[in-house]
Design goal:
There is one protein chain. Helices cover about 40% and strands about 15% of the residues. By secondary structure, it is of the alpha+beta class. A hairpin with a 5-residue loop joins strand 24 and strand 25. The chain binds zinc ion. Zinc ion binds next to loops.
Amino acid sequence: MVFLWPNFNLMAQNQENPQRYTITAALPYTNGPIHIGHLAGVYVPADIYARFLRLTGKDVLFVGGSDEHGVAISMKAKKEGVSPKEIIDKYHGIIKKSFQDFGITFDNYSRTSAEIHHKTASDFFKKLYEQGDFIEETTAQLYDEEANQFLADRFVVGTCPKCGHEEAYGDQCENCGSSLNATDLINPKSTITGSIPTTKETKHWFLPLDRYEGFLRKYILEDHKNDWKPNVYGQCKSWIDGGLEPRAVTRDLDWGIPVPVEGAEGKVLYVWFDAPIGYISSTKEWAEREGKDWEPYWKDEGTKLVHFIGKDNIVFHCIIFPSILKAHGDFIVADNVPANEFLNLEGNKLSTSKNWAVWLHEYLEEFPDMQDVLRYTLTANAPETKDNDFTWKDFQARNNNELVAIFGNFINRVAVLTHKYYDGAVPEPSDFTQVDTETLAALRKFPETISSSIEHYRFREASQELMNLARLGNKYLADEEPWKVIKEDEERVKTIMFVALQIATGLAILSEPFLPFTSGKLKNILNIASARRSLSAGKLSDGNAVTSATLSHRWESVTKNEVLLPSGHQLNKAELLFRKVEDEEIQKQLDKLEATKKSNENENKTLMPQKDTITFDDFTKLDMRIGTIVEAEKMAKTKKLMVLKVDTGLDTRTIVSGIAESFSAEEIIGKKVTVLVNLAPRALRGVDSEGMILMTENTEGKLVFMNPDENGVGNGEGIN
Ligand SMILES: [Zn+2]
């Protein structure tokens, strides 16, 4: 006997069948263009989710915008000698265009410098201020006397008190992920002038997060124990269990939204207070333009709110923003925050400052009209549960072995054969064989399988299910071989092609969230209508809109409709959906990255200028020999010095060398080295040093021995 228990979890959330969806995607920071890491982590999954829900007929609002406040923008402007406005205008434009180019279907894409946002965020602060939700506190903050400015966030670097990382910022350590206050840093240094900061008193407002502990425990640890991703849930739990502390919501800075309180001149809202409110401002902007009411999308319990972000934003979206919304009192909080881990590029961390990235606008210059290939590769290899690596070889393999060889090959055969045998009209089928029936039954199951993956935010699994549908079609044609059967049984081929055309139509519908441009092209080939605004940024490849189309399908049509493409329906002419990516194209990208690596290395090095010219006689005065380190011991009470015994071939002598910070004694005993043997002896800390070991420095500042790269060079061999 089976007992059916009501699902209390879903009942509590009232989100089993929401009336509407509000989907947000992290506001990209306008201090640079966006790269594949942003796309993979946030925007492609958010767009797949939004497109999928629209296709299933849901009321969906998908909002985003540029995050244009904060210290990094202020810093970049100072460095480049321009106004912050110039920086944000430039990158807002580039970012917005990248989103359009890649078919990210925001219903509204705003910016936090917009007036509507300044007012919304300012009103938010005022309401909380008037309700007494903030703590006012005068504290000592780091101050740069040279720049005449308080130092917080990215304006100060120092050693992380939690993990010892030496380049932690004043707000966060990128090594261990800890959130920090600038005054926590050990050995802080101003990033503006490089000087060591003093401290100075200043007044700020804090959100006492500790007051929301009970709320957060219930909201996250109880109500979302089962439906949030383990990485997100785990991070929240460790935050809450670690003890929540009051968090500053204001900053001493000249760029941002002025704190709307008397006596707060020269202070702005902390960017992390104002940025998430940007989702609400963006919704208001949309509602104004469309003549809609924004409030249900943020205040009605029947709305399902989902934030798409990267893992570096978890604390802000799961702890701080919900606490702000809760404090305000009128707002719903997120039903889910499906944060992704990080994407790396060819084994290294993506970095804007090191130019270690594939920039979206550059990608499109080199792979025009191939947005879907990147969308697909990033989804199929999405960093959903752990950090993942983007490699150009994988990109090529996904394209050539899956999109071209399976998806594209199937569609091309279907279209070409339909034109060849029936002048492009869908044939009338005769009797279905068992294989036909089973194949059509399998097709009908795909919407549910893919839906289930998407609803659980498992987009890479969903993308592989979609590819499985293409595999089903490809295998069906390969097994049934209409190109052979046509010689003996024309009636049978009509049935085969009819079945194949149904699968092709299923692919056109179900691929839309993942491969919107391809889906548009395929719908054009099949002469069926694109779903509502499914291709806002994409043009059909022949520049024409679908004209004579009469058929329009939704997601569930694939399951419900007996026939997706009826007999007699006329197809448009065939075109190729994908093209092969050649080895040379991949090599070009790899060369480009290699060049970036080299140029980064050179930039880190300040090369010594060449010294004065010497004569050959000067050179021959230097007696350099190969030797072997036979003993090594760190000199007591010194940091750098090591006392070495070196077999020079001539003798075994003592040399004091400043290498103790780079090497341990054990790792250098037995090492072949080059020694300047005729250097006049000198006493270092009471020990006579008779010669010098030749060294150089690598890009990370580590010392490297100058030693022969060939074995069998004996001690005492001279260098000339
Ligand atoms: Zn750290």
